[in-house]
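User: Study the shape:
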Amino acid sequence: MIKDLLHETEDKMKKAIEALDADLRTIRTGRASPALVERVMVDYYGVATPLEQLAIISAPEPQLLTIRPYDPASLKDIERAILASELGLTPNNDGKLIRLVIPRLTQERRVELIKVVHRRLEEARVSIRNIRREAMNDLKDFEKDKLVSEDEADRGRDNLQELTDRYVKKVDESGARKEKEIAEV
């Protein structure tokens, strides 16, 4: 029973790490990457839709992204969404294609981006701690309902704390990698 709870908790923590990694990929570094804009939400006929579902995104050059919408009528909506995002990029529209020139990061912008990374890392840590709290409550309920002994519950809490520490460490490692990418000139 405790093993099932720990396994379920670990799956939730893995998903939190995956979500963090996907989120960190959207924070720009010095070079162009389609992941930078894939998750920008575009108001497409009244429905918030990820950009990756509306257009082909490519990086033909290290400092350039091109966005070719499947529906040319959505060009203005895509442009508006990019301007409204926290990417700090200005789209150039030629009627069929949007070009995003990725400027070199200034030291000031690097510091801002690192602050954004730190915010996302803290959100991930909070998420993992919330998952731990839910599991702890389940363990208390198991113990209260006499489904597990006190010793088993104590071992379960220790294992849960080890699991939490391991995943918080993964969050820190992801953050360190991203900071290194941003600091790269």
